[in-house]
Each structure stands twice: as C-alpha cells, then as structure tokens.
Amino acid sequence: MDNKDRFSPEENKPSSLEALKKRLYRKINPLKQSGDGQRGAHELHEKKYDVSGTWKEENTMPQELPKEYLGFGWIKWFFIGSIVFFFVALVVAAFVFFRGSNVVSPDNIVIDVSGPVSIGGGEELALQISVHNNNNVALELSDLLIEYPSGTRAVGNLEKELPRIRKSLGNISAGQTVNEVVRAVLFGQEQSVEQIKISLEYRVEGSNAIFVKDKTYEIALSSSPVSVSISALKEVSVNQEMSMAIKVDSRSNTALQNLAVQIEYPSGFEFSGATPSPASGQTLWLLGDVPENGSRTITVTGIMRGQDSEKKVFRIAVGTANTSGQQALGVMYSTTFQEITLRRPFMSAEMAVNGSTNEEYIAHAGEDVRVEISWVNNLPVRVTDGSIEVTLSGDIVDESTISVEKGNYDSSRNTISWDKRSYPAFGVIESGKEGRLQFSFKPKSLFGTDKIIYNPEVSMALTIGGNRTSESDVPTKITTSSTRVIKFSSGLQMTSRATHFVGPLSNAGSLPPVAEKETTYTVVWTVLNSSNNLSSAEVRATLPSYVRWKGMTTPGENISFDPASGEVLWSLGKVDAGVGFSSKAREVAFQVGLFPSVNQVGQTPDILSEAAFSANDDFTFVPVGITARPVSTRLSTDPGFKSGDEVVVAK
Q: Is 450 left (phi over 0), alpha (psi -120 to 50) or beta?
C-alpha cells in the first residue's frame, strides 16, 4: 500500500515548504516568438525580499502530529530516569567507599612464609611467618595455628610428636606486620612433598565471631633419614631356599626413635624364618631406637615357588612403629623394592621314594626304602665339579643297612654323597646331560626294642651343586636343594585266642565238645600299638551260626553284638602310642557257646572268624589295620587244654 493511501486528503495537502520548493524549481514558460520571428530569452523578474530584523515563520506544521510521533514521551521520561539513577548510584558508592573504611576483609590480610623449598628428612626446619594487616582497622585476639604433616617431631625432643602448634599474636594494628619463627623436625617418605597448613584466627571490634585466613606451604623431602640396602641374589632357583639381608642405616644427626621395618612378600614366597624374629606375624620388625649413624640388619629366609622366568618383587618399608598398636607403620621414611627372577633349577635333582615323587611318602611299619635320584644340567653351559649330597635324619634309619650305588655314606655326618671321585660323570657335565643314582636302607623295628620310637620319620635333604662361568649378579658356585620326608605308620599287633579252663570268665560244658550239647569258651582280644597315636580304633569279627553270643564280657571296654549279622564289635576309640610296650595293652574278653551238630563230629570247628583291627593313624593321617587269624576249639594258650580236646565227639 502507498503512503498516500495511508493518510487522509488533508494530510496529503502539500506543505508550505514543498510549495516553495516547486516555485523555486519551476521552469520558465517556453520562449515566446519575437516579432521578428526569433525565439526570445528567459524572462527575469525582479523580486523584493523583506529583510527586516525579525523572521516571520509561517505556520506550516499541521495542527496534529502523526501517530508515529506520539510515543516520544516515554523515551524522554526513561532518559530522565536514567540520569536520576546514575546520580543515586554515585551517591551510594561514595557512601560505601567512605563508610567502608572500617570493614575488615580477609583479602587485605597477607601471610608470607619464608623457608627452604626442600629439606632432608630428620633435619630441622625453620620457617619465618609474616602476617600483614592491610585493613584500616585492627585484628584482635589473633592466633597463629601451624598444622604439620604426620610424623613431625619437636626440636630437641624427637620422642614428642608435633601435629600442631598455636602461637598468640595478640592485636595486629591496621597496617602492622607481625613476624614469627617456628621450628620442627620433619620425617617422611623420600622425594615426597609435604604440606604445612598455616591459619590466622582473629576477631574484629564489635563481633564475637572468629574469622580465619589460611595458607598452605609445600616443602619437598629431598632425602630420607634412613638408607636401606638389600643383599640378595637377583636370580634364584624355583623351590630353592633363599636368604635376603636388609640393612637399615641412620642418616639423621640425632637418634631415630621407634624404628620399624615392614616387608610385603610376593606371591609364592614361603617364609621359613628370620633373624631377629618378627615382632608380629612374619612381616613386621620393631628395631627400637637407632642412634646417630647407627644401623640394624634383618635376615629373612624362605622358599620361592613359581615358574621359570617369573619375576618376584619384595617391598621393604622403613619408618616409625604405629603407636596405636596396629600392625603397620606410623610414619613411612623409605620404601625399597627388590626384584628377583625365578629360574628353573640350574642343576635339578628329583628324589623318588619307592617310585613315588611326592614330597611326603607314607611307609608301612618295617617297609624297606629305596630312593632313586634323577639329575640334569638345565643350564645352557657346562658345569664342572658336580656333586650331590643327601643328609638323613631320623631315629628310624637302620644305618647298618644303608647301601649306596657309586657313592659313599659318612655315618659321622649321616650323609650320602657323590662327586667326581666316586662318580666320574660329575667331572664335566655338559648342558642337558642327565643321570640316575640310588641308595636304600631298612627302618628299625618298632617292636622288641627297649626304646619306643614315637612318630617315626626320615627326612632327606638333597643338595646338588657345581661350578659354572660367572655371570653378572649370579654366583659362580651354583646349588639347588630339595627335601623329601618319609613317615612310617604305627606298628600294630593283635591276638585273638580262646580259653575254657582259665580266664576272667567261668565256662561250662565238656571238653572235648559233644554234639548237640553246649560248651562255652572265653574269647580274648589283645591290641598293642607301637609309635603313633591312633583314633577311631575298632575290632570286628563274626560268630558262626552254630556259636551263640552269651552276653558275658569283661567290664571297662565297649563291646557289642549284632544278632542279625552275628558280628562282634569292640570300639576302642583312641589308642595311645606305646600301648602294650610302655603301658598296659588294651584287652577285652567275651563268652560264646559252641553248639555243634552231629555232622561236625570228628572236626575242629572255628568258634570265631578272622578278627580285623582298624584305626586312623594320627601322625601319618592314613588308615592302618591288622588282622588276627580265626579262633578254633584248639585252645593252645589254655594250660588245662590237652590234645584231643578240640575234636567234637558224638553224644
């Protein structure tokens, strides 16, 4: 839509200014023809202007403003309001500026700390702390609080832990600077960064609230107050016992209090012992106070289990003992790691006892022992001057029966040995070369001796060694060790016999027994045990169908009869070692009645089946047992018995 359509006719009327413009730029009428027929020039007209001292302004503006100009009023008021707001804000800012001179801001408090950036553990640390009050008012009742890291000690009294100190600074005036020097002895992990927290607590006039300004100061511990050195092989054989010596030296110029060492073992390490012994378990040693430049040494032994080329890492931490009683370090001074590489045995030797390669072999009482040794050089290089030595220990070995193939037995040391003199193959052992050796012995009898051998066993400790070309951190002399244990089951004895004329029970009937008539007998069981305690011991036997259980037994023993099966059961329970030798034998008696049939005339019938004694050996943890032959009417242990009394006769 055009503009002319949006205004009324009155509004479309040209203004005086526009009319004047049209008159100024109006063209003169075309040249009139002169009388002589030529075109005439422009006509010029003189116009006179009023140049009086005052202007006469025509009322050329419309009586009403257009609608788009009607909003000018609110802009004017907005502009006026902005100016008023500016002056008000200026007044408020001036008031706050001049009135705020009495307000305390923590940003106007500056804490400066002067001290070293690093220090050795156990050395005295001196810090100068400056507090600047840049506020326009004083800080009242000001306290300086210093919180040290764990393990910090007081200067001149290392037994006293110094977790924090508080110093009163009093009032700090506006613009005043207060200086304080604090001293302490820091301990901690070498190359660690410790933090010291410094706080200023203060009050302001007219308030009971406590305000705090904090600052943290960091300092590096360049060294530890102790040094740790470890002496151990970097390569050990799998399943070989190893030793590790840990030496702790004091670097401090004062005595170290309550020193402790904690060892973290790798998986597969079996602790054997230590000198000195651990204070708790197998991992913590309390070394006490160590003087200036003093030292302490711990030696740990154990067996490394694992795979060839496997790496094992020990972690040794040194610090102060935990005063709370926990089995850990209170403050740690140093941590050291020791890596050991496992190798398959340089020279391996395996013992097989009666064909078994188990570390523990269970032998029956009186069983002969044959040991075969298989050896091999696992190194990629030759070994010279090889040797094998087996040390026997245990009272059960009958030394007179020891037989050694291609070796020697030294009875003064209880050792069996092979070297290049008795076994030339040990002179030079090429890589991969292997061989076999053997020896045998008999155990002593567990019966018929004056001395009872309790828990009889033989321990065999084998060491194989030789020389090889020296390598870095690997000994020239190489050795590998292994052990085997032979445990012997307890020796058992049992008798099963019958009487008629003697014994703890009175019997009836005739001897020889008569068909279809009853004759009673007393059956006596006796048990002997030599060396090991037994548990769950019992004796079982069965009565034939023609023998009756009479129900008469000696008191003090647990014996029962099952009519359905005809089984007699004697429950002994626990049987101590030495029963029947160093103490009275276990014995029970019970009465049975023989009622023979006519078809048994002329026979010597059994009155009890084979008796079986069984138990658990508490030393070898294997079941043991023995049997006694059946009992017949032949009463060989009864003094009143005579030949012929065992045969059944007709009635």
A: alpha
Residues 641, 644, 648, 651: is their CA dihedral positive or negative?
A: negative
Same domain? For 481 and 506 the reply is no
Whether residues 209 and 233 share a domain: the answer is no
Q: Are 232 and 243 in contact (CB under 8 A)?
A: yes
Asked if the model's pLDDT at residue 222 lies above 80, the reply is no
Q: In what order do the strands lie in the sheet with 547-553?
A: 492-499, 519-529, 586-594, 547-553
Say what the pLDDT of residue 75 is: 73
- Phi first, then psi: give them for residue 102, nearest 5 degrees: -105, 10
Strand pairing report for 329-343 and 235-237: parallel
State whether 359 and 464 are in the same domain.
yes
The predicted model scores a pTM of 0.56
CB 158, CB 255: distance < 8 Å: yes
**Distance (Å, whole) CA 419 – CA 408:** 9
Long-range contacts of 418-423 (CB under 8 A, 24+ apart): 418/387, 418/388, 418/389, 419/385, 419/386, 419/387, 420/385, 420/386, 420/387
Q: Which pLDDT tens digit goes with each residue over 274-304?
A: 999 998 788 999 988 888 888 899 999 998 8
> Within a domain: residue 578?
yes
């006719």: which residue's tokens?
9
pLDDT band at 11 (very low <50, low <70, confident <90, very high): very low
DSSP string, 188-233: --TT-EEEEEEEEEEE-TT----EEEEEEEEEEEEE-SEEEEEE--
CATH for 147: 2.60.40.10
The single-letter code of the amino acid at 103 is V
C-alpha–C-alpha distance, residues 246 and 264, integer Å: 13
